[in-house]
Structure formats: structure tokens, C-alpha cells
Amino acid sequence: MPKLPPARIALATLLLFAAVCGAWLLSLDPHAHFTTDVAELLPSDERDPEARLALSLSAERQARVVLIALDAPAGTAPTALATAARVFADSLQNSPAFAAAHPQADTTWQNAVGRQLHARRLDLLLPAWLAQQRAAAASPEAAPAEALAKEGFSSYLATRAIATLDAHLASPASAALYAQHRFNQFSRST
């Protein structure tokens, strides 16, 4: 059998790789929906209308945003980096391709917004569930009002969630789910 030249072997390898990649692309589901929108991860009945509006406005605005990161050698003074960022933003602002350009070197406002969002994270993510829990806490069957006032709603909510989870884990339904869990079956078969 004659020996093939290295160029032909390389070409054959490249064609084989392209064929495998093409087959893989054809095997993908074209109707699969991939998203980077965090709001789509929330159940539709748990979305706060104000938060949904803010997220939709944010998504529209983000579709037109360009983020550019400037890097500097280690040891560069923060003031020099901030000056360079401002000069770059000013040059972009003078370009007709950009409506606005802002340097984002100062993140104190982002930290402040992050702290506010973190403080209200449960209200924003789970408003219906929290309303049910508040109603349950206000009912006469709940813990005594003085204990609730002493502990606070967050502590009451954590205690109630743990008790509910413990009761579920001790139930026969939980044991049945555990027995049927596919990862559990996989681990038993090995």
C-alpha cells in the first residue's frame, strides 16, 4: 500500500473533523430555547409586576449596550486608570456611533444597589409565597405574637421552613421519591 503524503492525511483529518462537527450540529434540537434572561428562571406566578417591568426595560436597554474593558499593567495607579477610562469614554462620546459613553471605574453605586437588592431579595423573587407566610404568621394558630415580635419574621420564617422540610423528609412520599430518584438508582447499580 502506498504511503500517503502528510498533506493528504492532514486534509483527511480536517474533513473528518468538519464532518463530525456538522453531524453534531445537525443532532442539536433547533427548537431548543437557550436564554440568559434570569427572569425566565422564576415561575410566572412568583414574579412581582414592578420587577418584571424593570427587567423588561433593562433587557431592552441592554440590547443596545456595548461594554469595553480597559486593562492596565500591574502597578498602574488607580487615578491613571480612571483618567484613561475617562479619555476613552470622551472619545467614544464624540463618535456618532455611540449615543452615550460612561466610564464605570467607580463601583460604589453598584455596591449600594446590590445591597438594596440583597435586602429585598425575597420580596422581589417570591412575593406570593411571602404573602402566604405573612398571613400564616398573623393567624391565631401561629406562634404567639410576642414570640414572633421578639424573634422577628425572618427567624419565624426560617424555623417554619425547616419544620416543613423536616416533616416532608419524614413522610412516606419523600421516601418514595428517594427510591425512584434516577441518580439514586444509578449509584445503587455501580
Account of the protein in words:
The protein has 190 residues and is an all-alpha fold. Helices cover 64% and strands 0% of the residues. The two termini are 46 Å apart. The model is unreliable at 185-190 (pLDDT under 50).
Mean pLDDT across residues: 77
**Global shape:** flat
Helix/strand order: HHHHHHHHHH
Query: What proportion of the residues form beta strands (DSSP E)?
Result: under 5%
Number of strands: 0
Could you estimate the helical fraction of the residues in percent?
A: 55-70%
Stretches with pLDDT under 50, minimum 5 residues: 185-190
Rounded to the nearest angstrom, the distance between the terminal CA atoms is 46 Å
The number of helical elements comes to 10
Give a summary of the structure in a few sentences.
With about 190 residues, the chain is an all-alpha fold.
